[in-house]
């Protein structure tokens, strides 16, 4: 039986093969592999796409977040509010600059619960770092109002949400800084690592540019301890080509999400993700919840849960699914801080036990989605959740 992968980049590549191969060969023959016109062109086009005045390419989404914090001079003694239900990099960079990640629990959208932000603000809080998880935009209107009331900076982690919008504006253009990842699995993915910082603030942009090149102002004049974080010319050229397709691909993801909605609706114990009321999702993932009825031990999340059964069942049918993320960040060893934090963020902990990301990419066919839906229903029947 034909396998259904979580994401199939080979199908995407077929659509852009000629343009990419021509462009890559041009770069190879040009001898200009770092910086230059290809990078400048991508930065300009990505700034235009996101509706910002500045885009600075860098080596990864992780570096983009790190550079954003450094540009805002956030460091030792400072606190940054973020979500415990995200990829590790979000909190890792906060710790890496010497600051403390202060977690706030999530709501049913898997994003930060904005109701709980104000209670987490202290005199040490310098910024809020919302994550548009799985492509779903955070309610940026409310978040910016909270940030403004408390004079806090907002760094948007847009790694999974390139192209998503809130109230008609692209994510990454609403907060003070937007941080993007071009890791291959992202909506706009390179053929390797890549990232970018976006902002409408010229001073922040200049600082990011300086920091990403060893804190250099003029050649060999260093004003800060920075890093070497470059988006290389080959990746920039590939991203420029892919950017032209991004809206169509995101619309394709939206179609796939709508079809899942139709195929999977009204299944007991299955909660489907909802398209946001005030914006558009980039649907980097289509993440369902397989609800647990009894309490379960988070430290052994595979212990016969409905999620584990569904995952195994689908796997036997040749259908891959993924768990993003099995351990919330406050329960990662490095953030346990010697104390047992189990129970601190119950919604994030529950999500970690229940989430399952189904295959999601624009080229996923109706027939494949029907196979996935049939497999899921069969498993629910076998588990006596659904009557046969
Ligand atoms: C939410 C989030 N933030 C940050 C990152 C880091 O991006 P990169 O892998 O490009 O460093 C990722 C990537 O997986 C992510 O999903």
The bound ligands are: pyridoxal-5'-phosphate
Helix content percent band: 25-40%
Going by CATH, what is the homologous superfamily of the largest domain? Answer: Type I PLP-dependent aspartate aminotransferase-like (Major domain)
Distance between the termini: 24 Å
Task: Examine the secondary-structure arrangement and name the CATH architecture of the largest domain.
Answer: 3-Layer(aba) Sandwich
**Main sheet record:** 7 strands, mixed
Which keywords apply here?
388 residues; alpha/beta; Aspartate Aminotransferase, domain 1; three-stranded antiparallel beta sheet; 12 helices; 39% helix; binds pyridoxal-5'-phosphate
What does this structure look like?
- With 388 residues, the chain is of the alpha/beta class.
- It has two domains: 9-241, Aspartate Aminotransferase, domain 2 (3-Layer(aba) Sandwich); 246-382, Aspartate Aminotransferase, domain 1, CATH 3.90.1150.10.
- The protein has twelve helices and 13 strands.
- A seven-stranded mixed β-sheet has the order 1-9-8-5-4-2-3, with helices on both faces. A three-stranded antiparallel β-sheet has the order 7-6-11, with no helix packed on it. Strands 10-12-13 form a three-stranded antiparallel β-sheet.
- Strand 6 (165-166) and strand 7 (169-170) form a beta hairpin.
- The longest helix has 32 residues, at 233-264.
- The model is unreliable at 296-301 (pLDDT under 50).
- It binds pyridoxal-5'-phosphate.
- Residues 60-62, 86-87, 89-90, 131, 157, 159-160, 181, 183, 193, 195 line the site of pyridoxal-5'-phosphate.
